TrEMBL record, chain B:
Name of the protein described by the UniProt record: Cytochrome c oxidase subunit 3
Localization annotation: Cell membrane; Membrane
Endpoints of the signal sequence: none
Record-annotated Heme-copper oxidase subunit III family profile domain positions: 29-206
Family: Belongs to the cytochrome c oxidase subunit 3 family.
């Protein structure tokens, strides 16, 4: 299993004095394979896309502030709702989840890095280039406009004749590849890299959540990849998968999309559950109530998550038997989720609760997420869903679980682990301002949307007629959206001001840290642990504290530490896929310039991109990376 | 390095050199996980094919199109190549580099034979049967499922060929052994996928 052997090749004797080639500046970031730096890359990239998605949301809400508004035309509005959903889910929150996983998981399990540092870097760069490709659509002929679910035939060539949906299909395939790589990496990391003594049932809940989330990613993302490939073939090669005239079936797209799409929402929410399960015990000074039931509930949610996809399709016409079965399986998910809610409440019960910023977000998460869960059970009832379907009630529901659940969880996690990632504590005062503006803005925006939906306002409409009692509630909703924007700006100000202060956070800045990441400096040295720690129970650090120890018992003597070399190959591979994707997308286009036509129409650009990618893979295979060593003297010198 | 029994820098290789290092064990584990994802990928393609296999849009149907003896020959080649890749791994565990190289070569050649037969089959359909990607939903699903598998075979051939080169150049070490082992896992996987394609696409197409 894990053990200290990660530093040593049995067959390769150590070469003393073998030092690494060090990059600085931009090259350091492009070539890094250090999980802590990749976490920061994920955070900035995810933050960038989150900002874009947030601005899109603000534009949507401005358009809907009053009836018959002419701020945006219908086409732009459709592009904005499509890109808002797609950007937020695939490019906004998922990278921030990966940022926290990268920053925390190796530390929590007592490892020096992930199992595959090279793949970690590759996963990030493919995600980034996929996201950039998708967003290039804004300046290259129009963004996708068929909704984030891209239902056929609306997303087919007949109704979406621009390249918008091609940017969606190809961009998401590339970004999805990065996510899949990341998922496999974390599965392998958690299975093999745990410190001695850390059995599965001694793992922190965030590590468990990451483990289960990665398993869902592994089994859900290939399905959407196939769906996107089929849609790409329909649009670019004139295949007939979803083309009724050629014998195809549009409902097939819905099935494939939601077989991925429903597990995807658990990919989003389980990490938030993990974060909340770390924050609440820390600030209650109590171990997590019902740890083993928490683990069991997480596994059960993941398992059930694969059997409920057709509840998105109740009105498609699958018949009463299918609808009834998917209703029941959906309602079942409320049971393990309820177990979690009560476990968090019972953890706080009788604890010495401190309402720091992370704990405020965690405490705000519980009722907000529960409200989203209750509307989820309402939507799970197929007969009622015929009324709710495609109304603002659904919009309110999924924003309650994704923003009120996941985003609050991410805020909790970011405030909680910020000192560990950057060595600086975020301002508590500004953090509390962020919390109150964001959560009040959130409820203003989305609580009223329940009623808008029940009163019959459909989602995805670019405007509405006056005097349907929609006017005031839409105004309230837009005001709330701006308040959420204010919360985000306060958070950014907090980050900026914090970055100008000295990096003086201690190892255990919250003073009640329970897990291994709080036993090492903030930010950690690049090798994380000078000596791999010995884990003697759940909440390993807390256990040592209770035993009167100030530090972990080491599981190995101080020795030479093997590190992987920095490399630019993952970046090159991703650039190659990016070029190949663009080339394939425009392969059937007529260009004014004959050279361009020649290059694109003969698949030369596509081939060039693939050559870069496969060439880089070949280089990686041919030239072994022996890595480099940090010697004990350097460790002592720190 | 190409002695009868490979030796690592510090002594003889262990019986299972692919699992001698943590890196090697990680690689094998992660590849199992990757194959799990691949199974979902092909599962989705199979589901798509099954949903659309009778939608011939007045083009050729499976029963009219398929010529089983040719496909049976391709199947035989691929199944035997899986066996030879087992022999290769057994040779690797004995530390016999010459045999390992030879069995890998045979595997690559059999895979190449399969690929040539498949390309020939596709070209016959396109040129003589007017059965292309755009003919019908059935044709789109057929070319996508079988083509995805064919692309996997092509990638496997190139991959194993590169590994043969590395084996000759670097010898059998705890670095090259996991690569060879993992490529054999991959090869078995695409062989299993083909068994399903042969059954679901070709046999069911002829009789179903």
């Amino acid at each position: 299993m894990a053990h200290a052997a990660q530093s040593l090749h049995p067959s390769q004797p150590l070469k003393p004095g073998h030092s690494a080639k060090r990059h600085t500046g931009l090259m350091d970031w492009i070539t890094t394979v250090d999980h802590k730096k990749i976490a920061i890359l994920y955070l900035w990239a995810g933050g960038l896309f989150f900002g874009i998605g947030g601005l899109e949301a603000i534009l949507i809400r401005i358009q809907l502030i009053k009836p018959m508004n002419t701020f945006l035309d219908a086409q732009t509005f459709n592009e904005l709702i499509t890109m808002h959903g797609t950007t937020m889910i695939f490019l906004g929150v998922m990278p921030v989840i990966f940022a926290l996983m990268n920053a925390v998981i190796p530390l929590q399990i007592g490892a020096r890095d992930v199992a595959f540092p090279f793949l970690n870097s590759l996963g990030f760069w493919t995600f980034l280039f996929g996201g950039l490709l998708l967003n290039l659509s804004w300046v290259m002929g129009g963004a996708p406009d068929a909704g984030w679910t891209a239902y056929t035939p609306l997303s087919g060539k007949g109704y979406s004749s621009t390249h918008g949906v091609d940017f969606y299909t190809i961009g998401l395939q590339i970004a999805g590849l990065g996510t899949l790589i990341g998922g496999i990496n974390f599965l392998a990391t958690i299975i093999t890299m745990r410190a001695p003594g850390m059995s599965f049932m001694r793992m922190p809940m965030f590590a468990w959540a990451t483990f289960i989330t990665s398993a869902i990613i592994l089994f859900a993302f290939p399905a959407v990849t196939v769906g996107l490939v089929l849609l790409t073939f329909d649009r670019i090669l004139d295949a007939n998968f979803f083309n009724v005239a050629g014998g195809g079936n549009p409902v097939l797209w819905q099935h494939i999309f939601w077989i991925f799409g429903h597990p995807e929402v658990y990919i989003l929410i389980l990490p938030a559950f993990g974060i909340i399960s770390e924050v609440i015990p820390t600030f209650s000074r109590k171990r997590l109530f019902g740890y083993s039931s928490m683990v069991f509930a997480t596994i059960l949610i993941a398992f059930l998550g694969f059997m409920v996809w057709a509840h998105h399709m109740f009105t498609t016409g699958l018949g009463p038997v299918a609808n009834a079965l998917f209703s029941v399986s959906t309602m079942l998910i409320a049971v393990p989720t309820g177990i979690k809610i009560f476990n968090w409440l019972f953890t706080m019960w009788g604890g010495q609760v401190r309402f720091t910023t992370p704990n405020l977000f965690a405490a705000g998460f519980i009722p907000t997420f529960t409200m989203g869960g209750v509307t989820g059970v309402m939507l799970a009832s197929a007969p009622a869903d015929f009324q709710f379907h495609d109304t603002y009630f659904v919009v309110a529901h999924f924003h309650y679980v994704i923003v009120g659940g996941l985003v609050l969880g991410l805020f909790a996690g970011l405030h909680y682990w910020w000192p560990k990632m950057f060595g600086r504590m975020l301002s508590e005062a500004l953090g509390k301002w962020t919390f109150w503006t964001f959560i009040i803005g959130f409820h203003l925006t989305f609580f009223v949307q329940h009623f808008l939906g029940l009163m019959g306002m459909q989602r995805r409409v670019f405007t509405y007629l006056p005097n349907q009692q929609f006017d005031l509630l839409n105004l309230v909703s837009t005001v709330g959206a701006f308040l959420m924007g204010v919360g985000m700006i306060i958070f950014l100000v907090n980050i900026f001001l914090t970055s100008r202060r000295p990096a003086d956070a201690p190892n255990d800045p919250w003073e009640d840290g329970r897990t291994l990441e709080w036993t090492i400096p903030s930010p950690p040295p690049e090798y994380n642990f000078k000596q791999t720690p010995l884990v003697r129970g759940l909440d390993a650090f807390w256990k040592e504290k209770m035993a009167g120890a100030k530090a972990m018992t080491p599981a190995e003597p101080v020795g030479s530490i093997h590190m992987p070399s920095a490399t630019i190959l993952p970046f090159m591979m991703s650039v190659g896929i990016f070029i190949a994707g663009l080339g394939f997308m425009f392969s059937r286009d007529e260009f004014n310039n004959s050279i361009m036509s020649f290059l694109f129409n003969n698949y030369i650009v596509t081939a060039l991109g693939l050559l870069i990618t496969f060439g880089s893979m070949l280089m990686r295979s041919l030239f072994d990376d022996h890595g480099w060593h940090i010697e004990p003297e350097e460790l002592e010198g720190r | 390095m190409t002695t009868a029994h490979a030796e690592a820098e510090g002594g003889t290789l262990p019986h299972e050199p692919e699992k001698a290092t943590l890196e090697g064990r990680n690689k094998v584990l992660a590849f199992w996980l990757f194959l799990g994802g691949e199974a979902v990928l092909f599962g989705t393609l199979f589901a798509t094919f099954l949903a659309l296999r009778n939608q011939t849009n007045e083009g050729p149907s499976a029963a009219e199109l398929f010529h089983l003896p040719l496909v049976a020959l391709a199947t035989l080649l691929l199944l035997v190549s899986s066996l030879t890749s087992v022999f290769a791994i057994q040779a690797m565990h004995r530390g016999n580099i010459a045999q390992l190289r030879n069995w890998l070569l045979v595997t690559v050649l059999l895979g190449l034979g399969f690929l040539i037969l498949e390309i020939y089959e596709f070209s016959v359909y396109i040129r003589h049967e007017e059965f292309g990607m755009t003919t019908s939903a059935f044709s789109s699903a057929f070319y996508t499922l079988v083509g995805f598998h064919g692309a996997h075979v092509a990638f496997g051939i190139m991959w194993i060929a590169v590994l043969i080169g590395q084996l000759m150049h670097k010898g059998l070490t705890v670095v090259t052994a996991p690569k060879i082992y993992v490529s054999a896992m991959y090869w078995h996987f695409i062989d299993v996928v083909w068994v399903f394609i042969f059954t679901v696409v070709y046999l069911l197409g002829k009789v179903g």
